[in-house]
């Protein structure tokens, strides 16, 4: 199933598709609705939808005449959770790096008074 | 060169931003620091400084080998109670504002990631770090991204399978 996951990441790597997914988190939309804000052909929008469908991110109702597009929120949430968790771990590491850099700067400028090179204080 | 999905100059990254690459099995991370490129470089090349920030606080990191210079190599071990995780790699290139290193978790010695760290001077005492981690397959990239989860990657896939099975595919 790893291809599936790569497809989800690839699907979300495109800004137009990310925007479509963001709008679908609020409500289902028909293809016409979805296409409206974008300056691209309906065909191009259908192509984007196909990518999202193949990734399992959206489904289209087979019953209703207008076949609204529906976001598979669970799949979307899992992906975003994975990425966000990874991001958060990186951020925790960088916060610790912030602290190390702050200590280094104190050692580089041992004078407690700020190093004024700009003349008089205001 | 790498496929860069370069952010706008005006964008600020006070917190880490992450983007899985669209074209190759890689992950980008951007983060701004209140420091000069030289200081950021030192925090990466100096073993004592590096040890202070690399490991999660829940782990103790012990640096076994550290030569952060062109053609150097490294190895460090993180421990949590009885568990040990060892990481190793080489530094093909270390310059003034760039580090190129390989990264391997010894539990999967054949899976090698290639990491390029670039420090960009933002000109106001701040520096932007860009980390580009290139894995050898999309599967490996996704495992790396999922490695932070409490559930292992396979449980994650199993859960995804369940979800997909419920859908109308």
Question: What's this entry about, in short?
Answer:
The complex is a heterodimer of chains A (122) and B (169). Chain A is mainly alpha-helical. Chain A has five helices and two strands.
Describe the secondary-structure layout.
The complex is a heterodimer of chains A (122) and B (169).
Chain A: H1 2-12, H2 15-24, H3 31-35, H4 42-54, E1 58-60, E2 69-71, H5 73-108
Antiparallel strand pairs in A: 1-2
Helix pairs in contact in A: 1-4
Chain B: E1 17-20, E2 26-33, H1 37-45, H2 47-53, E3 60-66, E4 72-80, E5 83-91, E6 93-94, E7 98-105, E8 113-121, E9 127-134, H3 138-146, H4 153-166
Antiparallel strand pairs in B: 1-2, 2-9, 3-4, 4-5, 5-7, 6-7, 7-8, 8-9
> What structural class is derived from the secondary structure elements of chain A?
mainly alpha
- The pLDDT mean of chain B sits at 82
Q: Segments of chain A where pLDDT lies below 50 for 5+ residues?
A: none
Question: What's the average pLDDT of chain A?
Answer: 82
Q: Beta fraction of the residues of chain A?
A: under 5%
- Rg of chain B, Å, rounded: 18 Å
- The SSE order of chain A reads HHHHEEH
pLDDT < 50 stretches of chain B: 149-157
GO molecular function (chain A): DNA-binding transcription factor activity
Protein name (chain A): ArsR family transcriptional regulator
Pfam family, one (chain A): HTH_20
Organism (chain A): Nocardioides oleivorans
Please tell me about this protein's structure.
Chain B: This is Polyketide cyclase. Chain B: Residues 35-164 form the Activator of Hsp90 ATPase homologue 1/2-like C-terminal domain. Chain B: It comes from Nocardioides oleivorans. The complex is a heterodimer of chains A (122) and B (169). Chain A has 122 residues and is mainly alpha-helical. Chain A has a domain at 4-72: Arc Repressor Mutant, subunit A (Orthogonal Bundle). In chain A, 61% of the residues lie in helices and 5% in strands. Chain A starts with a helix and ends in a 14-residue tail after the last helix. With 169 residues, chain B is an alpha+beta fold. Chain B has one domain: 2-Layer Sandwich (Alpha-D-Glucose-1,6-Bisphosphate, Chain A, domain 4), CATH 3.30.530. Chain B has 4 helices and 9 strands; from the N terminus they run ββααβββββββαα. Chain B has helices spanning 37-45, 47-53, 138-146, 153-166, and strands at 17-20, 26-33, 60-66, 72-80, 83-91, 93-94, 98-105, 113-121, 127-134. In chain B, strands 1, 2, 3, 4, 5, 6, 7, 8 and 9 form a 9-stranded antiparallel beta sheet that branches. In chain B, a hairpin with a 5-residue loop joins strand 1 (17-20) and strand 2. The longest helix of chain B is centred in the last third of the chain and has 14 residues, at 153-166. Classes of the chains: A mainly alpha (122), B alpha+beta (169). The interface between A and B is large, with 41 and 47 residues.
């Amino acid at each position: 199933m790893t291809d599936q996951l790569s497809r989800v990441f690839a699907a979300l790597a495109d800004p137009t598709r990310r925007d479509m997914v963001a709008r679908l988190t609020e409500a289902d939309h028909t293809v016409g609705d979805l296409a409206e804000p974008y300056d691209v052909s309906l065909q191009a929008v259908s192509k984007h939808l196909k990518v999202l469908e193949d990734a399992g991110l959206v489904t289209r109702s087979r019953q209703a005449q207008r076949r609204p597009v529906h976001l598979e929120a669970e799949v979307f949430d899992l992906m975003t959770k994975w990425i966000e968790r990874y991001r958060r771990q990186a951020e925790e590491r960088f916060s610790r790096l912030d602290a190390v850099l702050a200590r280094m700067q104190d050692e580089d400028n041992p004078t407690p008074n700020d190093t004024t090179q700009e003349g008089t204080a205001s | 060169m790498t496929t860069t999905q370069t952010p706008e100059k005006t964008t600020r990254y006070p917190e880490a931003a992450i983007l899985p690459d669209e074209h190759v099995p890689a992950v980008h991370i951007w983060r701004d620091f209140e420091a000069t490129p030289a200081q950021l470089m030192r925090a990466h090349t100096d073993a004592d400084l590096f040890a202070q920030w690399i490991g999660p606080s829940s782990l103790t990191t012990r640096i076994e080998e550290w030569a952060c210079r062109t053609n150097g190599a490294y190895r460090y071990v993180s421990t949590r109670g009885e568990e040990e995780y060892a990481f190793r790699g080489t530094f093909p290139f270390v310059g003034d504002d760039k580090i190129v290193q390989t990264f391997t978790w010894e539990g999967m010695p054949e899976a090698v990631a290639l990491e390029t760290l670039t420090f960009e001077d933002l000109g106001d005492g701040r520096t932007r770090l860009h980390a580009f981690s290139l894995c050898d397959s999309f599967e490996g990239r996704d495992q790396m991204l999922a490695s932070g989860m409490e559930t292992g990657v396979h449980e994650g896939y199993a859960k995804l399978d369940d979800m997909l099975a419920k859908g109308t595919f």
